[in-house]
Specification:
The structure is a homodimer. Helix content of chain A is 22%, strand content 40%. By secondary structure, chain A is of the alpha+beta class. In chain A, the strands form two sheets. In chain A, strands 1, 2, 3, 4, 5, 6, 7, 8, 9 and 10 form a ten-stranded mixed β-sheet that branches. In chain A, strands 11-12 form a two-stranded antiparallel sheet. Chain A is globular, with a radius of gyration of 22 Å. Chains A and B meet through helix 1, strand 5, strand 6, strand 8 and helix 6 of A and helix 1, strand 5, strand 6, strand 8 and helix 6 of B. Chain A binds a DNA duplex through residues 40-44, 243-245, 260-263, 265-267, 280-288.
DNA sequence: ACAAAAGTGTTAAACTTACACCCATGC
DNA sequence: GCATGGGTGTAAGTTTAACACTTTTGT
């Protein structure tokens, strides 16, 4: 560094400018058994997509539920902050972790200018520590359900500038035992000048703090799209040993549709290796357990 | 909002905490003719992938080239800041714009704690204003070339914890007339606990300021992956009227491989509509011009 | 005439989709 | 026996990949 650069930096006062706080918000998903008891001895337990939420112990949004998260500290990267939060909440760092989007609308946090980096994390329920279920933190896994409840589509033709607008309203519902929280979120999808843009707006929020309804729906859609185009991340929701039926159910839960077993198995066959473990005692034919075939995952470029 | 919340907020002083500045860095791509003159009257001009770079007029990294960008201001979203920067540099807002990643390593900017949101923007060269080529700003379009120059792969087996590590070195070279800048970047790809992680590190930087070599390579790879799995964004690099050969070349430039014409045309046929415009005068059969078939783009869910 | 690019047709191989069928278990 | 899940085979339809071939132009 030369003298001019050094002088410039000596006179540069970063504190002169308005600066935001940076937060990380974590959408931590897992798949686990439904808490509902099983009547039929033959039936497998119902699996559900779960999202970890935290009950806020202090303002703002005290007593409401929000995504786990916290502020990014000086000296750590945003990714490290996300990993730190993940560990604090779940006691594991064996997770698929991806930065999904920034949420920075002014007014999104009453404390001031706070920009949030939203992360998606996928963990398998077997590695989750009870911490998340303990009482100190008031963290709970919620069953997640997302339904589109309306859709309108129209063409706006203003002097040759062809715009297609499609408005949907989604209903997000989340359950933990008798706790039910949710939100209605409007999705506005614009196609103008050959460019698509999507915007979400919280229309109604019931028990969910901040703009987290919006973040949840955004990440949930991202998760579905990712699984639709490349299913490999679904394995991050599985324990080391799993049956092919469990794997298929994980796909079905995220994609929200049934798959044909024979076809599914052919498709994923290269990613799994049979072991000699079997599960018996289910009132039906025992299932072989499989592990990931790591070579298949790694053979990219 | 109740009294407790109001009191809490009245006593909350955001300035007590260390806060970073938020910058947006823009990787603005377009495709345009190579500046090299064409000898053969029959040959079409060579197309290249171009990236807009700015010569820094003041420290830090004075006289080096960097991605266009700037600080996010209070009251605007990160996305709005990106759009503002895009307009400032290119005088257009008709672009594909996507937030790609956060770069937040401490020490990445000598002025202090500065976190950068990296955006990818795709514009078509016909809408670009001369501003970018003017002298005031010292902004220039650089031809981009990225080559992997080495690759090593090994398995680390530490007490059953199977880790595969794959290290590559990429050479990034960028040209504008007689200006040549570039960087060597090491890619470390880890596959551990069934989770893949990728890390980039600038090994050597020649004329490129900050950690922008890293950002460029990251976004370039993202662009390629996106085009490989869903080619629709390539249309954002095309003007309103285009020939199928131009479109095919855009794909080939980004994917860095040749495609078979007959197959390519079948694949993209639903996305284009023939017009009665033709291009003549090329010393070969005239080409029909096409426009986007907007309905095909929009028929998702 | 001929080189360059524009544009189409044909075929084999690969993959997807749908459905039918058999197997093994616990009560 | 029978409901439930575990597991496989086959055939039709669709998509991809490779290649061969024809057309049209400016010099």
């Amino acid at each position: 560094m030369n003298k001019e650069e050094q002088e410039y930096l000596a006179n540069y006062d970063i504190a002169k400018y308005d600066r935001p706080s940076i937060a990380v918000d974590m959408a931590i998903f897992t798949i686990s058994d439904s808490h509902l008891d099983n009547a039929d001895y033959r039936k497998l337990p119902d699996k559900r997509l779960k999202l970890l939420m935290i009950k806020r112990g202090q303002p703002p949004y005290k007593d409401m539920w929000a995504l786990p998260g916290g502020f990014c500290k000086k000296g750590e990267t945003v990714y490290e902050a996300a990993l730190r939060e993940l560990k604090e909440e779940t006691a594991t760092d064996k997770a698929y972790l991806e930065m999904c989007n920034v949420f920075s609308e002014s007014g999104r946090d009453p404390r001031g200018w706070i920009i949030s980096q939203a992360f998606m994390a996928l963990i398998n329920s077997k590695t989750v520590n009870v911490k998340a279920g303990g009482d100190a933190w008031e963290a709970r896994w919620f069953d997640v359900e997302l339904k589109r409840i309306s859709k309108e589509q129209y063409v706006i033709d203003q002097s040759g500038n062809n715009t297609i607008e499609s408005d949907s309203v989604f209903e997000l519902k989340m359950y933990h035992n008798d706790i039910i929280i949710g939100a209605k979120i409007k999705e506005k999808r614009l196609y103008r000048d050959y460019h698509e843009s999507v915007e979400y707006d919280v229309v109604e929020s019931d028990g969910i703090g901040f703009d987290h309804g919006k973040i949840i729906i955004y990440i949930l859609n991202k998760l579905r799209n990712k699984v639709e185009t490349d299913g490999k991340i679904v394995f991050d929701l599985m324990p080391e040993y799993f049956t092919l039926t469990d794997l298929q159910k994980a796909f079905e839960i995220i994609l929200d549709r049934k798959l044909l077993t024979a076809n599914f198995r052919r498709k994923i066959s290269e990613y799994v290796t049979e072991t000699d473990r079997i599960i018996t005692g289910g009132g039906h034919r025992p299932a072989k357990m499989f592990i990931r075939n790591i070579d298949a995952f790694y053979k990219n470029d």
